Structure formats: structure tokens, C-alpha cells
């Protein structure tokens, strides 16, 4: 079911629309929270808070133009709020959390015998990136967000987000070429 139909259903109090929306996005949001480096229980609580707010908030359907982006932004903000509450007496200097990901989304695409090799190569390439580059790559290519949305999530300009993704891709290409050269030199 399309997001705008779900939003309309929720606005009209349709519980089935809410259940469908929850089922559609809960795993993706959990994966994003894990990638941000938060504990699983905190992520689960934050996701529940996001959906509870969505359910209780009487919004006009026009407020949300991209539901996926709205949920990502809401989750990230809620996780930051929970983190701030956890360290009440300490000052939060930076919200730049280590973004990590273990590739598991490729299960349906890769044949079983090639999956492990490809996962290792991708993880090695992602490990060569900075935390922000990893987060930008995952948001762009895994979660298919636009540069404006990535910029908003990472608190930067759209031009800077485009440049960040471009540099990350260039770095991974160079790393892949280096790996191939090492492999060929061994033979």
C-alpha cells in the first residue's frame, strides 16, 4: 500500500492503516538505529515513541510529503533526545555517532555461495569510509533517500551531502582497485 494512502487512513483513524505502516517500516528503522550505534533496547523504545507520536498526533496529510524521511528523521531525533536524557549532567558536544553497518540486505539478491565473499568485500569497502560517509552511502543507496533528505539528516547543505556521497564512492572505487591489484600480485 502506498504511503500517502496509509497517511490518509491514519488521519481518518483507520487502525489497519497504522498496523500496515508499522509493519512496513519497523525493521528498516531498527536497522538504521543499529547503524547509528545505539543499543537495541533503546532503539526499540525510540521506534515505539515515534509510532506512538504518529498515532496520537493529529496531523494533516499535507504535513508529511515523504513518510520514510519523516520516520527516519523522527527516529534519529528521538534517539538523540534519549541519549541527552541519559547523560543529564554531561554536555553533549557532538551528535556525530559512529555509523556502522553489516551488510545483510543483499540476502535476496546474492546466491548463497557468493554471498559471504561479497559481504566481506562490501564491509571492507565500507570500513574504509568515515562514519559520516558510511551513513550517507547507506541513506542514499540502501534507503534511497534524496540528497536534500540526507543533508537534513546529517545537518549539512544538499551540495555538501552530494559531495560527501561522491567522495565516499570515489574512495570505495580506489579501495576496490587496490584490492584487485593486491590479489593479482599474489598470483
List the helices and strands and how they pair.
Layout: H1 3-11, H2 15-35, H3 40-56, H4 67-86, H5 112-127, H6 131-142, H7 147-153, H8 158-186
Protein name: RNA polymerase sigma factor, sigma-70 family
GO molecular function: DNA binding; sigma factor activity
Domain RNA polymerase sigma factor 70 region 4 type: 120-172
Notes on the structure:
By secondary structure, this protein is mainly α. It has 2 domains: 3-86, Orthogonal Bundle (Rna Polymerase Sigma Factor, Chain: A), CATH 1.10.1740; 105-186, Arc Repressor Mutant, subunit A (Orthogonal Bundle). Helix content is 70%, strand content 0%. The protein contains 8 helices and no strands. Helix 6 packs across helix 8. It is elongated. 22% of the residues are buried. It comes from Parabacteroides chartae.
Query: How much beta, percentage-wise?
Result: under 5%
Report Rg: 19 Å
Mean pLDDT: 79
Low-pLDDT segments: 106-110
Task: Tell me the number of structural domains.
Answer: 2
Please count the helical segments: 8
Termini gap: 52 Å
In CATH, what is the class of the largest domain?
Mainly Alpha
Pattern of helices and strands? HHHHHHHH
- Helical percent range? over 70%
Gross morphology: elongated
Tally of DSSP β-strands:
0
Helix and strand composition category:
mainly alpha
Assign the CATH topology of the largest domain. Rna Polymerase Sigma Factor, Chain: A
Q: From the coordinates shown, what is the CATH architecture of the largest domain?
A: Orthogonal Bundle
* Largest beta-sheet characterization: none
Amino acid at each position: 500500500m502506498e504511503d500517502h494512502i496509509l497517511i490518509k487512513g491514519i488521519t481518518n483513524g483507520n487502525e489497519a492503516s497504522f498496523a500496515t505502516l508499522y509493519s512496513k517500516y519497523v525493521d528498516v528503522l531498527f536497522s538504521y538505529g543499529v547503524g547509528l550505534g545505539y543499543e537495541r533496547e533503546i532503539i526499540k523504545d525510540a521506534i515505539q515513541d515515534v509510532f506512538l507520536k504518529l498515532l496520537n498526533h493529529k496531523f494533516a496529510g499535507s504535513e508529511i510529503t515523504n513518510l520514510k524521511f519523516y520516520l527516519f528523521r523522527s527516529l534519529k531525533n528521538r534517539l538523540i533526545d534519549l541519549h541527552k536524557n541519559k547523560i543529564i549532567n554531561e554536555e553533549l558536544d557532538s551528535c556525530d555517532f559512529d555509523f556502522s553497518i553489516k551488510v545483510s540486505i543483499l540476502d535476496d539478491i546474492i546466491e548463497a555461495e557468493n554471498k559471504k565473499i561479497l559481504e566481506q568485500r562490501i564491509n571492507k569497502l565500507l570500513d574504509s569510509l568515515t562514519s559520516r560517509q558510511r551513513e550517507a552511502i547507506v541513506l542514499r543507496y540502501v534507503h534511497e533517500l534524496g540528497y536534500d533528505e540526507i543533508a537534513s539528516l546529517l545537518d549539512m547543505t544538499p551540495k555538501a551531502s552530494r559531495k560527501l556521497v561522491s567522495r565516499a564512492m570515489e574512495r570505495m572505487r580506489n579501495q576496490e582497485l587496490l584490492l584487485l591489484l593486491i590479489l593479482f600480485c599474489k598470483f
